[in-house]
Amino acid sequence: MKVAIIGANGQLGSDLVEIFGEDAIPLTRRDLDVTDATSLNILNELKPDVIINTAAYVRVDDAEVEVEKAFHVNAIGALNVAKACNEIDAVNVYVSTDYVFEGAKGEPYTEEDIPNPINVYGLSKYTGEIFTRNYSKKFYIIRVASLYGKAGARGKGGNFVDSMIQRAKNGEDIKVVDDVFMSPTCTKDVSRMLKRFLDLDLDLDLDLGIKPAFGVYHIVNEGYCNWYDFTREIFTIFGGDAQIQITPIRSSELKRLAKRPVFSVLKNKKLDDLGLRMRNWKEALKDYLVEKGGIVIK
Ligand SMILES: NC(=O)c1ccc[n+]([C@@H]2O[C@H](COP(=O)([O-])OP(=O)(O)OC[C@H]3O[C@@H](n4cnc5c(N)ncnc54)[C@H](OP(=O)(O)O)[C@@H]3O)[C@@H](O)[C@H]2O)c1
To answer: Which residues neighbour 5 within 8 Å (Cβ) at sequence distance 6 or greater?
Structure first.
Protein backbone atom coordinates (compact mmCIF):
# COMPACT_ATOMS: atom_id res chain seq x y z
CA MET A 1 0.00 0.00 0.00
CA LYS A 2 1.10 3.55 -0.70
CA VAL A 3 0.36 6.01 2.11
CA ALA A 4 0.73 9.74 1.47
CA ILE A 5 1.45 11.63 4.69
CA ILE A 6 0.56 15.33 4.62
CA GLY A 7 2.45 17.35 7.25
CA ALA A 8 5.33 14.89 6.96
CA ASN A 9 7.78 17.09 8.88
CA GLY A 10 5.37 17.64 11.79
CA GLN A 11 5.45 15.97 15.18
CA LEU A 12 2.99 13.21 14.28
CA GLY A 13 3.74 13.25 10.55
CA SER A 14 7.45 12.51 10.99
CA ASP A 15 6.74 9.48 13.18
CA LEU A 16 4.16 8.25 10.68
CA VAL A 17 6.77 8.50 7.92
CA GLU A 18 9.16 6.40 10.01
CA ILE A 19 6.59 3.77 10.94
CA PHE A 20 5.12 3.38 7.43
CA GLY A 21 8.67 3.07 6.08
CA GLU A 22 8.80 2.10 2.41
CA ASP A 23 5.03 2.54 2.05
CA ALA A 24 5.23 6.20 3.06
CA ILE A 25 5.05 9.09 0.61
CA PRO A 26 6.11 12.07 2.77
CA LEU A 27 4.58 15.40 1.76
CA THR A 28 5.56 18.63 3.47
CA ARG A 29 3.97 22.03 2.94
CA ARG A 30 6.54 22.67 0.20
CA ASP A 31 5.13 19.73 -1.78
CA LEU A 32 1.50 20.50 -1.12
CA ASP A 33 -0.48 23.16 0.73
CA VAL A 34 -3.88 21.90 1.85
CA THR A 35 -5.36 25.40 1.52
CA ASP A 36 -4.45 25.51 -2.18
CA ALA A 37 -6.64 23.00 -4.04
CA THR A 38 -4.50 23.08 -7.20
CA SER A 39 -1.40 22.04 -5.25
CA LEU A 40 -3.25 18.83 -4.38
CA ASN A 41 -3.06 17.78 -8.04
CA ILE A 42 0.26 16.15 -7.19
CA LEU A 43 -1.81 13.39 -5.57
CA ASN A 44 -3.24 12.44 -8.97
CA GLU A 45 0.27 11.54 -10.09
CA LEU A 46 1.31 9.81 -6.87
CA LYS A 47 -1.95 7.83 -6.60
CA PRO A 48 -1.63 6.72 -2.97
CA ASP A 49 -4.12 4.18 -1.57
CA VAL A 50 -4.42 6.19 1.64
CA ILE A 51 -3.88 9.87 2.46
CA ILE A 52 -3.20 10.77 6.10
CA ASN A 53 -3.81 14.48 6.66
CA THR A 54 -1.91 15.67 9.74
CA ALA A 55 -1.61 19.26 8.47
CA ALA A 56 -3.07 21.69 10.94
CA TYR A 57 -3.08 25.14 12.45
CA VAL A 58 -2.39 24.01 16.04
CA ARG A 59 -1.84 27.21 18.06
CA VAL A 60 -4.93 27.16 20.25
CA ASP A 61 -4.67 30.69 21.69
CA ASP A 62 -3.59 32.36 18.44
CA ALA A 63 -6.55 30.75 16.67
CA GLU A 64 -8.87 33.00 18.71
CA VAL A 65 -7.52 36.00 16.76
CA GLU A 66 -6.40 34.28 13.56
CA VAL A 67 -9.79 32.69 13.07
CA GLU A 68 -9.66 32.68 9.28
CA LYS A 69 -6.20 31.16 9.15
CA ALA A 70 -7.24 28.36 11.52
CA PHE A 71 -10.36 27.58 9.49
CA HIS A 72 -8.45 27.79 6.24
CA VAL A 73 -6.04 25.00 7.18
CA ASN A 74 -8.16 22.88 9.52
CA ALA A 75 -11.52 23.08 7.74
CA ILE A 76 -11.13 24.22 4.11
CA GLY A 77 -7.93 22.17 3.95
CA ALA A 78 -9.87 19.09 5.03
CA LEU A 79 -12.49 19.77 2.35
CA ASN A 80 -9.78 20.04 -0.34
CA VAL A 81 -8.18 16.80 0.81
CA ALA A 82 -11.54 15.00 0.86
CA LYS A 83 -12.20 15.98 -2.77
CA ALA A 84 -8.67 14.99 -3.82
CA CYS A 85 -9.09 11.58 -2.16
CA ASN A 86 -12.33 10.96 -4.02
CA GLU A 87 -10.71 11.70 -7.38
CA ILE A 88 -8.18 8.92 -6.92
CA ASP A 89 -10.39 6.65 -4.80
CA ALA A 90 -8.03 6.91 -1.83
CA VAL A 91 -9.00 6.42 1.81
CA ASN A 92 -9.03 9.79 3.58
CA VAL A 93 -7.61 9.82 7.11
CA TYR A 94 -8.19 13.15 8.88
CA VAL A 95 -6.38 13.61 12.18
CA SER A 96 -8.55 15.43 14.70
CA THR A 97 -8.52 16.36 18.36
CA ASP A 98 -10.04 15.91 21.84
CA TYR A 99 -10.74 19.67 21.71
CA VAL A 100 -13.89 18.98 19.70
CA PHE A 101 -15.47 18.23 23.10
CA GLU A 102 -16.50 20.87 25.63
CA GLY A 103 -15.26 18.89 28.62
CA ALA A 104 -18.39 18.84 30.77
CA LYS A 105 -19.07 15.09 30.63
CA GLY A 106 -16.84 14.29 33.59
CA GLU A 107 -15.90 10.89 32.22
CA PRO A 108 -13.98 9.79 29.12
CA TYR A 109 -15.55 10.69 25.78
CA THR A 110 -16.27 7.88 23.33
CA GLU A 111 -16.72 8.15 19.58
CA GLU A 112 -20.49 8.23 20.15
CA ASP A 113 -20.43 11.47 22.16
CA ILE A 114 -21.54 14.61 20.35
CA PRO A 115 -18.82 17.26 19.94
CA ASN A 116 -19.42 20.80 21.14
CA PRO A 117 -16.18 22.78 20.79
CA ILE A 118 -15.59 25.76 23.07
CA ASN A 119 -12.70 27.40 21.21
CA VAL A 120 -11.90 28.40 17.62
CA TYR A 121 -9.27 25.70 17.17
CA GLY A 122 -11.73 22.99 18.29
CA LEU A 123 -14.49 24.38 16.10
CA SER A 124 -12.20 24.58 13.05
CA LYS A 125 -11.12 20.96 13.58
CA TYR A 126 -14.73 19.84 14.08
CA THR A 127 -15.66 21.61 10.85
CA GLY A 128 -12.80 19.68 9.23
CA GLU A 129 -14.33 16.49 10.61
CA ILE A 130 -17.73 17.35 9.13
CA PHE A 131 -16.22 18.11 5.72
CA THR A 132 -14.30 14.84 5.90
CA ARG A 133 -17.41 12.87 6.88
CA ASN A 134 -19.75 14.49 4.38
CA TYR A 135 -17.47 14.82 1.36
CA SER A 136 -15.31 11.68 1.45
CA LYS A 137 -16.33 8.39 -0.08
CA LYS A 138 -13.98 6.50 2.23
CA PHE A 139 -12.73 8.07 5.43
CA TYR A 140 -11.47 7.65 8.94
CA ILE A 141 -11.45 10.52 11.42
CA ILE A 142 -8.77 9.77 13.98
CA ARG A 143 -8.98 11.80 17.19
CA VAL A 144 -5.75 12.09 19.15
CA ALA A 145 -4.90 14.24 22.19
CA SER A 146 -2.09 16.01 24.08
CA LEU A 147 0.61 14.76 21.74
CA TYR A 148 4.32 14.55 22.34
CA GLY A 149 6.88 13.15 19.93
CA LYS A 150 10.53 13.53 19.20
CA ALA A 151 10.11 16.18 16.50
CA GLY A 152 8.04 18.44 18.78
CA ALA A 153 4.96 20.23 17.45
CA ARG A 154 6.19 22.54 14.69
CA GLY A 155 3.24 24.86 15.04
CA LYS A 156 3.82 25.22 18.79
CA GLY A 157 7.62 25.24 18.77
CA GLY A 158 8.01 22.00 20.75
CA ASN A 159 6.03 19.72 23.03
CA PHE A 160 5.04 19.86 26.69
CA VAL A 161 7.40 17.10 27.88
CA ASP A 162 10.51 18.60 26.31
CA SER A 163 9.59 22.08 27.46
CA MET A 164 9.19 20.95 31.11
CA ILE A 165 12.60 19.28 31.02
CA GLN A 166 14.16 22.36 29.48
CA ARG A 167 12.63 24.58 32.14
CA ALA A 168 13.96 22.33 34.88
CA LYS A 169 17.42 22.43 33.30
CA ASN A 170 17.21 26.23 33.17
CA GLY A 171 16.29 26.27 36.86
CA GLU A 172 12.96 27.97 36.09
CA ASP A 173 9.89 27.76 38.33
CA ILE A 174 7.53 25.07 37.15
CA LYS A 175 3.86 25.81 37.76
CA VAL A 176 1.31 23.49 36.19
CA VAL A 177 -2.48 23.30 36.29
CA ASP A 178 -4.01 20.47 38.30
CA ASP A 179 -7.65 20.99 37.32
CA VAL A 180 -7.47 20.09 33.61
CA PHE A 181 -7.58 16.40 32.69
CA MET A 182 -6.50 14.80 29.40
CA SER A 183 -5.03 11.73 27.70
CA PRO A 184 -1.27 12.25 27.24
CA THR A 185 -0.34 10.50 24.01
CA CYS A 186 2.90 9.60 22.32
CA THR A 187 2.98 10.15 18.54
CA LYS A 188 5.04 6.98 18.04
CA ASP A 189 2.24 4.92 19.62
CA VAL A 190 -0.42 6.64 17.50
CA SER A 191 1.65 5.94 14.38
CA ARG A 192 2.10 2.25 15.19
CA MET A 193 -1.59 1.84 15.93
CA LEU A 194 -2.65 3.69 12.81
CA LYS A 195 -0.48 1.36 10.75
CA ARG A 196 -2.10 -1.71 12.34
CA PHE A 197 -5.52 -0.16 11.88
CA LEU A 198 -4.96 0.57 8.20
CA ASP A 199 -3.55 -2.92 7.70
CA LEU A 200 -6.96 -4.12 8.87
CA ASP A 201 -8.65 -1.80 6.40
CA LEU A 202 -6.64 -3.26 3.57
CA ASP A 203 -7.14 -6.81 4.85
CA LEU A 204 -3.45 -7.14 5.56
CA ASP A 205 -3.90 -8.25 9.17
CA LEU A 206 -4.73 -11.90 8.95
CA ASP A 207 -4.73 -12.50 12.72
CA LEU A 208 -7.70 -10.31 13.51
CA GLY A 209 -9.32 -10.53 10.09
CA ILE A 210 -11.84 -7.76 10.80
CA LYS A 211 -12.25 -4.75 8.54
CA PRO A 212 -13.08 -1.57 10.47
CA ALA A 213 -16.11 0.42 9.34
CA PHE A 214 -15.42 3.92 8.07
CA GLY A 215 -16.05 6.60 10.69
CA VAL A 216 -14.58 8.22 13.80
CA TYR A 217 -11.98 6.49 15.99
CA HIS A 218 -10.12 7.62 19.09
CA ILE A 219 -6.44 6.69 19.33
CA VAL A 220 -4.86 7.81 22.60
CA ASN A 221 -2.68 6.15 25.20
CA GLU A 222 -4.79 4.46 27.88
CA GLY A 223 -5.47 6.10 31.23
CA TYR A 224 -5.53 9.80 31.98
CA CYS A 225 -4.28 12.46 34.36
CA ASN A 226 -4.13 16.19 34.93
CA TRP A 227 -1.22 18.28 33.67
CA TYR A 228 0.32 18.54 37.15
CA ASP A 229 0.37 14.74 37.59
CA PHE A 230 1.72 14.36 34.07
CA THR A 231 4.58 16.73 34.94
CA ARG A 232 5.30 14.88 38.18
CA GLU A 233 5.49 11.62 36.23
CA ILE A 234 7.93 13.18 33.73
CA PHE A 235 10.28 14.07 36.57
CA THR A 236 9.75 10.79 38.43
CA ILE A 237 11.00 8.99 35.34
CA PHE A 238 13.56 11.64 34.52
CA GLY A 239 14.89 11.10 38.03
CA GLY A 240 18.43 12.02 38.84
CA ASP A 241 19.34 13.80 42.01
CA ALA A 242 17.89 17.14 41.00
CA GLN A 243 15.22 18.46 43.35
CA ILE A 244 12.59 19.74 40.98
CA GLN A 245 9.91 21.89 42.51
CA ILE A 246 6.56 21.67 40.74
CA THR A 247 3.77 23.91 41.95
CA PRO A 248 0.14 23.03 41.21
CA ILE A 249 -1.99 25.97 40.10
CA ARG A 250 -5.61 26.45 38.98
CA SER A 251 -6.29 27.06 35.29
CA SER A 252 -8.09 30.30 36.21
CA GLU A 253 -4.68 31.67 37.22
CA LEU A 254 -3.45 31.41 33.62
CA LYS A 255 -4.53 34.29 31.46
CA ARG A 256 -5.01 32.57 28.14
CA LEU A 257 -7.04 33.69 25.14
CA ALA A 258 -8.75 30.38 24.42
CA LYS A 259 -10.95 28.43 26.79
CA ARG A 260 -9.88 24.81 27.25
CA PRO A 261 -12.10 21.84 28.03
CA VAL A 262 -11.45 20.88 31.67
CA PHE A 263 -11.89 17.17 31.01
CA SER A 264 -11.17 16.11 27.42
CA VAL A 265 -10.12 12.53 28.14
CA LEU A 266 -10.81 10.17 25.24
CA LYS A 267 -11.74 6.50 25.43
CA ASN A 268 -10.67 4.22 22.56
CA LYS A 269 -13.99 2.41 22.55
CA LYS A 270 -14.06 1.43 18.89
CA LEU A 271 -10.43 0.29 18.88
CA ASP A 272 -11.20 -1.90 21.90
CA ASP A 273 -14.17 -3.37 20.02
CA LEU A 274 -11.75 -4.36 17.24
CA GLY A 275 -9.44 -6.01 19.78
CA LEU A 276 -6.78 -3.30 19.41
CA ARG A 277 -5.32 -1.82 22.60
CA MET A 278 -3.10 1.17 23.20
CA ARG A 279 -0.70 0.92 26.14
CA ASN A 280 -0.89 3.07 29.26
CA TRP A 281 0.41 6.65 29.03
CA LYS A 282 3.02 6.06 31.78
CA GLU A 283 4.69 3.24 29.83
CA ALA A 284 4.68 5.30 26.64
CA LEU A 285 6.15 8.31 28.44
CA LYS A 286 8.94 6.20 29.93
CA ASP A 287 9.93 4.83 26.51
CA TYR A 288 9.84 8.31 25.03
CA LEU A 289 12.15 9.70 27.70
CA VAL A 290 14.52 6.74 27.47
CA GLU A 291 14.65 7.08 23.68
CA LYS A 292 15.45 10.77 24.01
CA GLY A 293 18.51 9.71 25.93
CA GLY A 294 20.35 10.92 29.00
CA ILE A 295 17.52 9.83 31.27
CA VAL A 296 18.24 8.43 34.71
CA ILE A 297 15.47 6.06 35.69
CA LYS A 298 14.91 5.67 39.41
N1 LIG B 1 -0.13 18.60 19.24
C2 LIG B 1 -1.16 18.19 19.96
O3 LIG B 1 -1.10 18.15 21.18
C4 LIG B 1 -2.42 17.71 19.28
C5 LIG B 1 -3.51 17.34 20.07
C6 LIG B 1 -4.67 16.87 19.43
C7 LIG B 1 -4.73 16.80 18.05
N8 LIG B 1 -3.65 17.19 17.31
C9 LIG B 1 -3.73 17.09 15.85
O10 LIG B 1 -2.70 16.22 15.44
C11 LIG B 1 -2.22 16.61 14.15
C12 LIG B 1 -0.71 16.71 14.17
O13 LIG B 1 -0.28 17.68 15.11
P14 LIG B 1 1.26 17.90 15.43
O15 LIG B 1 1.41 17.99 16.91
O16 LIG B 1 2.06 16.91 14.67
O17 LIG B 1 1.48 19.38 14.82
P18 LIG B 1 2.72 19.99 13.98
O19 LIG B 1 4.01 19.42 14.42
O20 LIG B 1 2.55 21.48 14.04
O21 LIG B 1 2.44 19.45 12.51
C22 LIG B 1 1.53 20.06 11.64
C23 LIG B 1 2.08 19.95 10.26
O24 LIG B 1 1.16 20.56 9.36
C25 LIG B 1 1.91 21.26 8.38
N26 LIG B 1 1.05 22.28 7.81
C27 LIG B 1 0.55 23.37 8.42
N28 LIG B 1 -0.19 24.07 7.55
C29 LIG B 1 -0.16 23.38 6.37
C30 LIG B 1 -0.74 23.60 5.10
N31 LIG B 1 -1.50 24.67 4.83
N32 LIG B 1 -0.53 22.68 4.13
C33 LIG B 1 0.25 21.61 4.36
N34 LIG B 1 0.85 21.37 5.54
C35 LIG B 1 0.63 22.25 6.53
C36 LIG B 1 3.08 21.83 9.14
O37 LIG B 1 4.13 22.11 8.24
P38 LIG B 1 5.09 23.40 8.45
O39 LIG B 1 5.40 23.47 9.91
O40 LIG B 1 6.29 23.11 7.58
O41 LIG B 1 4.31 24.57 7.99
C42 LIG B 1 3.43 20.66 10.05
O43 LIG B 1 4.30 19.76 9.41
C44 LIG B 1 -2.96 17.91 13.80
O45 LIG B 1 -4.05 17.59 12.98
C46 LIG B 1 -3.48 18.41 15.14
O47 LIG B 1 -4.67 19.17 14.99
C48 LIG B 1 -2.50 17.63 17.89
So the answer is: 13, 16, 17, 20, 24, 25, 26, 27, 52, 54
pLDDT tens, 93-143?
A: 999 999 999 999 999 999 999 999 999 999 999 999 999 999 999 999 999
pTM for the complete prediction?
A: 0.96
Say yes or no to pLDDT of 157 above 50.
yes
Asked if 55 contacts 132 with a C-beta cutoff of 8 angstroms, the reply is: no
| CA 161/CA 149 separation, integer angstroms | 9
Q: Is 217 a catalytic residue?
A: no
Q: Which amino acid is at 256?
A: R
Give the rounded distance of the alpha carbon of 126 from its chain centre.
14
Task: Return d(Cα 14, Cα 102) in angstroms, integer.
Answer: 29
Least Cα distance to 190 among 48, 38, 7, 15 occurs for 15
Contact 63, 120 (CB under 8 A): yes
Residue 134 vs residues 38, 65, 118, 284: alpha-carbon distances, Å: 21, 28, 22, 34
Q: Residues in the chain, how many? A: 298
Nearest CA to ligand 1 atom 7: 97
For ligand 1, whether the C-beta of 161 sits within 6 Å is no
Do 194 and 52 contact (CB within 8 A), yes or no? Answer: yes
Residue 4 Ramachandran class (φ > 0 left, ψ -120 to 50 alpha, else beta): beta
Q: Is the CB of 40 under 6 A from ligand 1?
A: no
Contact 86, 133 (CB under 8 A): no
Which is nearest to 197 in space by CA: 183, 184, 211?
A: 211
Give me ligand 1 centre to Cα 240, in Å. Answer: 33
Find the catalytic residue in 94, 121, 126, 217.
Answer: 121
